[in-house]
């Protein structure tokens, strides 16, 4: 062996203690967290009037095989809407990313939202960044045990609530919550809560930015959607560095005009932008894959710029082209292509969902036996009519035939078809043709089903009527 | 080769420094070392986890053989009540789990069966929920018990087993009559006439029988046949009636309609062939037997089978 294997040293994670910051983007983010949490935690408790069905606004009832989302009821066979919804969501993500970068990551991703809440808890219990660093470095004592313990306890409370809230979507919330706390709930509920509690605690409490940098595939492939016109959080290095680089705001360099005369850039190298970063990067090094564009460094830098009296926006939302003196360009081929595909999928999805049939009607011939000769010589074929009523109302359908000369329809005991809400039923129809009317071996005809509640609603189904060859010959010969 | 040389020089360089790879610390013959390439931590921990899982499994599930016995595991009882009311309590095993699940399904099914048991066939047929359940239940029963002779779908076999999908009923097509046919069975008997009637007489009778279902037959032969049919020499009218419309109480076929269950008249290409089919039956007679099902099937099962058979072709 001439080669010596070299081992790669493992990089230990460097703990990140983000400093809190106030500002415009922080306010937006806080508002989004509050909105998202309100919807997520309260939605299972929202009641909804339904004639026949659960009284919960959003409920995914697997045992009843129906998902109720406000006025939409989806059944197992509607599952392909989910695929279309995913296509819509993915295209929306691509479209937004092409224009404005990782907006989803920075503002809406569950990982970002939950990590944000966990960091708030950490901040509330352990204090600001220096206090937290000090606490982490200090020896274990009663105070440290209390503070670290309380933090983890509160994290677990949030994590458990997250798992609990998620579980409540899959059953009737008021009943299910009682069942859960009295240990009467199905095992699946317990496992779900346990799993989500653990994952939330680990991902938002412990793994944090590592989820974005190592686990999430999106961070790695988002570069495919980026171009030099994509709006990202960027440091204005021309303004920040000047000719002689950054400099602390010493007495003689604090005034903006003096500083510019001296040739120093506007960056006072305070490091605030680095301290607030939840992924622990320095935005001044340029665009990096770790950056989730949370925009907190913009808030941080603006705070400092305001305090030293320099213009804001040293770190700002900008594109690579714009930073190099070019123009902002939003309408580019990428935006147009993503936009058009998004519109197409959105139209298919929303129009399709709105216009989807809430009643499935299928007619198939009973082919065993294919036909029967009746005592008076008539030929009878038999058909199974299956109706799946996905609505919340009682349905009455009339059945008639079209295009079969002299045919008699016999629904047996029923003169019309009745289907209860959210259920399906099969009815058997005997179709008879008098001997005299027999013309050919195989006749095409249509079943016409009419909704009695809504007269305009009809379903037609084409089928075959079979006659024994011998009888066709006989009747044709007689004529 | 140049690349090898450069490699060698690289490795020589690294040997003078601290070795980049972990070794076990042993050295043989001065410079032979054993590299240590530990498994990745995630692998090792996953392995330990499987050991922990195995131990937990041994505690809670049947695991270790001990002589003729085995460890049963704790807290894993399966309890259920069998159909005959016996309480079963056993440690976890897939067989008991299967029995339990089957029993639970039976209990669930029983709810519907109870509804059917208390309802009349008429009520079952008029209710779309009951009839849907009865239909799917009876379809299985039919396939298990009836389809061997009457064929799936009830088409029967001409010459052997009656067609249940048409509207001609030898023994009556009402719910109650069909139910009786299934429960008590039927004996379909027609005597053989080959010894009683001459070949010409049988030919005449066959001619008359075909004329009943509006076949164009020879007038003279038909008239002679009618005399035998309705007279003492043949005595056919005793069961088939003078009009030839059959008699349900005897299971005698209606000879005036288009349905043929024994003589395959429709298959005959000309009158002669049709007549041969009829003659064969007159000569040999009929001896058909439908077994009684009341000992094999329950009252409710027979009831829903009667409903099923009734609606196959449209009963009366």
Can you tell me about this structure?
- The complex is a heterodimer of chains A (479) and B (316).
- Chain A has 479 residues and is α+β, with helices and mostly antiparallel strands.
- Among the domains of chain A are: 231-323, no CATH class; 359-478, Immunoglobulin-like.
- Chain A has 17 helices and 14 strands.
- In chain A, α2 packs antiparallel against α16 (333-355) and α4 packs across α8.
- The radius of gyration of chain A is 34 Å and the shape is elongated.
- Chain A starts with 23 loop residues before the first helix and ends with a helix.
- Chain B is mainly α and 316 residues long.
- Chain B is 50% helix and 10% strand.
- Chain B has twelve helices and eight strands.
- Chain B has a two-stranded antiparallel ribbon. A two-stranded antiparallel ribbon of chain B has the order 3-4.
- Chain A binds chain B through residues 2-7, 366-369, 372-377, 380, 382, 410, 412-414, 417-420, 425-428, 430, 435, 468, 470-471, and chain B through 4, 7-8, 10-11, 14-15, 19-22, 35, 37, 125-126, 128-129, 131-132, 135, 151-155, 163, 165-168, 254, 257-259, 266-267, 311, 313-314.
Distance between the termini of chain A: 99 Å
Counted up, domains of chain B total 3
SS element count, helices of chain A: 17
Strand content of chain A: 15-25%
Query: Biggest interface in this structure?
Result: A-B, 35 and 39 residues
* Biggest sheet record of chain A: 5 strands, antiparallel
Q: What spatial form of chain B do the alpha-carbon principal axes imply?
A: elongated
CATH domain class name of the largest domain in chain B? Mainly Alpha
| Distance, first to last CA of chain B | 100 Å
List the strand order in the largest sheet of chain B: 1-2
**Stretches of chain B where pLDDT falls below 50 for ≥5 residues?**
1-16
* CATH-level-2 architecture of the domain at 359-478 in chain A: Sandwich
Structural class of chain B: mainly alpha
CATH topology of the largest domain in chain B: Cytochrome Bc1 Complex, Chain D, domain 2
CATH class of the domain at 359-478 in chain A: Mainly Beta
Helices and strands of chain B, in N-to-C order? HEEHEEEEHHHHHEHHHHEH
Count of DSSP E strands of chain B? Answer: 8
Low-confidence stretches of chain A: 1-5
Helix tally of chain B equals 12
- Largest beta sheet of chain B, briefly? 2 strands, antiparallel
